[in-house]
Amino acid sequence: MIDYTENIRKISGDLLKNGKVDVVIGYKRGTLPGINEPFLAKTPEDAEKLVWDSQCRLNLANYLTGRKENVAIIAKGCDSRNVVTHIVERRVTRDQVTVIGVPCTGMTDKNKVKQLAGGEILELTEKNGKITVKTRKGERSADKSELLQSNCANCLHRNPVINDIPFADPVPEINTARNDDEIKKIEAMNPAERWAFFDDLLSTCTRCYACKNACPLCYCPTCFVDESQPQWVGKGDDPVDVRTYHTLRAFHCAGRCTDCGACEAACPMNIKVRLLTGKLEKSCYERFGWEAGLTTDVRPALDTFTTHDPEEFIK
Amino acid sequence: MKILHIDRASWDKGVLASAETYQLTGPVKEKDFYEFKDLKKGEMPDMSGSDTRLSPKALVFPKSEVMITFSTDPNDPECNIMKETKKEYPKRAVIGIRPYDARALQLLKLNFDNGDYQDPYFLKAYDAITFVGLAVNQPSATDFSTSCGTGPFDEKGLDVLLVDAGEEGDYFAKIITPKGEAWAKAAGFTKEAGSDAATRIEGMKKAAEDQIVSTVAFDKIAKKTILELFEADHWESTAFACINCGTCTYACPTCWCFDIQDENFGTKGVRIKNWDSCMTGLFTMHGSGHNPRQYPYQRTRQRFMHKLKYFTDKYDQGIMCVGCGRCVRQCPANIDIREICKTMNK
Amino acid sequence: MTDFEPKIITFLCNWCSYGAADLAGVSRFQYPPNMRVIRVPCSGRISPKMILAALRKGADGIWVSGCHPGDCHYIEGNYYARRKFTLLKELLEYQGVEPGRIHFSWISSAEGVKFAQVANDVIAEVRKLGPAKHFIKGAPKEIAA
Predict the structure, then answer these.
(1) Which residues in chain B are contacts of A58 at CB distance < 8 A?
(2) Does the structure's ipTM exceed the value 0.90?
(3) Are B161 and B155 in contact (CB under 8 A)?
């Protein structure tokens, strides 16, 4: 397997040196084991700090919003789909962005890694598809494939959908169809059970908004949570306000979500917020045959229509 | 200073006995994390966990607190009169609080109880609490409390310091204040520890402090001017990764900013004090629509300027951080206060 | 349960369904008075926020009605609305809002009869479900009566 980090550094360094781009959005090594920090490389020297491994959980397209200069972005499959969404929604122009595409074999789930360690992680290394964590009690390792985030395990588009500088061969896809098992389990409940399920799911939410802020889709100049006339949602800890927030946040992502998993990776309380966005993506797929961010040629699901869209629920 | 010895068997019995006269609050595992919760009758605090996910600040500064109620009904004789909410503040023992977390509440108190302002809600809640802390024998790798004027055995904010005596869950209980004494009495803890207890506690304290691997220095920050720090050219790159969520501010034991909201229900209404976060744009949004902290990096800068500079200058009690490491561990983007402190302290 | 009179927030588009309500009125078609009508320019104008706002205030049912597909005054507003409502209805029901709380219809301004018919159906269905249980923002205990 070729070394992603080495290639990313070289390509980014060259782009910056030649003045092809002004900045490169990537990751640098984090200060803790098991997390990398999004990083803006501005010089060829900066490019030497770029890294890539299976701890790059956030979606870098989130850092693309509103940039005016020529930008290169290191993009895994889902990030590239959000770059597409950004282009379609005119957050950036196609000419302005250089996509350094990373064929992706998935990101590790921070909680599964923690579970594997069974204690405070002092060191994490990744080699040949194996993750090894060191704690005060000793070392443990596991295959990366066992530690994947659930969105990565169910991923349908591991290879970037746009890629200006392909440096690695595409990786084989591991799925051919959506896996909606978790959502179907909820759908099978009766309404009262479903309400209770989500009450419990969201019970520890602090409304820190990490899910929304980690999301590349959330760029409204004024978010509905901040609107005051009218105020759509209260700011306290009332469970109905929490539910309203999550419902509307998910809805704002409807037909645009690429299931990158940044929201869940960001949540400090380990809330599976993808159970809400996932339902909408499932509906979009079943109702409109739509998957977000695959091409710049079509508008997102809710920004278009056909005259024969299903309407059996309309009287 | 009295040191008691509490063996495993009398611990449970004593704690439950103290529940007769105290509302007990302690760490309880809820889903994936520990949080401070009011204990139900017969429920014991879970002393085995690490730091609670959120700090215990909600005990004195709830996430959402109704301060005032009002009526807008013209037929109500008390129409348009703001009334302070009647709230009970039963005697409360907080068991298993981390020493640096208790110190953090003292730092919070500086804001809620000073020459200019006294917040009755905060103070009543604070005064009702007896802090029974648990020393940390094995500090986390992200713990830098000793750099922040506190530590894993710090007694400053506590009424009782429990130290794991190592023998099958026995504790040494160092009684620090009369409040602590009263709780120990209510629990029926009377057995004095052997004469070597003080030395053993000192030894464990040193062992714990020696295991702290991370440090911060802020001596130069104190000497620099505000403008010099504020206008430094590193902020945009320092804050680049920050997504401006409230994870750090809500987890932080010393972040105390709040927002006041009115909510109306028909002709009745409440005024609520909610946690706020300087990370959000709304925090400084003016009525005119102008926002002095329009850009995300300005908000990140504010958080660290407040913690590491403004607070120090205002109260002369060190930085507004006790080094618990929660923000470092929980930040989704790896914004690390230790690194930022280093940059500012250059 | 028999005395339960549901409150149903009804969003009607200005050009078709509101006209249909007028027509039902002048034609003296009968339906129970459980609806609170909000006139909107187009069904496409309706944001999920508005529907949630109604639920939060305690609406027992929601009914949204616009022009038939192809007849939108703004050519295509109701086509967008249709997609939006498809997803919203599924998302709300997925979270436990009972099917039968939220209704959609296409009614032209000539369909006074249909208007009264759908109004009767919607009210009957919501009545059967009983008072709304979910998404209601209740008063905090400090002022709860």
Answers:
(1) 243, 332-333
(2) yes
(3) yes
Backbone angles phi, psi at B113, to 5 degrees: -145, 90
CB-CB under 8 Å, B281 with A268: no
C10 pLDDT band, cuts 50/70/90, is very high
**pLDDT tens figures, A160-172:** 999 999 999 999 9
The helix (H) or strand (E) run that includes residue C89 is helix C77-94
Cα–Cα distance between B21 and B183 in angstroms, integer?
9
The fraction of chain C above a pLDDT of 90, given in percent, is 94
Q: Give the separation between CA C63 and CA A174, rounded to whole angstroms.
A: 44
- Give chain A's radius of gyration (CA, Å): 20
Average pLDDT over residues B105-120: 94
Q: Which residues of C fall within a CB distance of 8 Å from B270?
A: 139-140, 142-143
Q: What is the C-alpha to C-alpha distance for residues A264 and A277, in angstroms, rounded to an integer? A: 11
Give strand ranges (E) for chain B. Answer: 3-6, 23-30, 33-38, 64-71, 83-84, 92-97, 129-134, 160-164, 171-175, 258-265, 268-275
Task: Quickly state the pLDDT bin for B9 (edges 50, 70, 90).
Answer: confident
- CA A89, CA A76: separation in Å to the nearest integer? 20
**pLDDT of amino acid C144:** 80
Q: Is the pLDDT of residue A225 over 70?
A: yes
Name the token pair of B339: 């690194």
> Which residues sit opposite B171 in a β-bridge?
B6, B164
Helix (H) / strand (E) element for A97: namely strand A97-101
- Cβ–Cβ gap A120/B141 under 8 Å: yes
Q: Which residues of chain A lie closer than 8 angstroms to C104, CB-CB?
A: 313-315
Distance between first and last Cα of chain B? 42
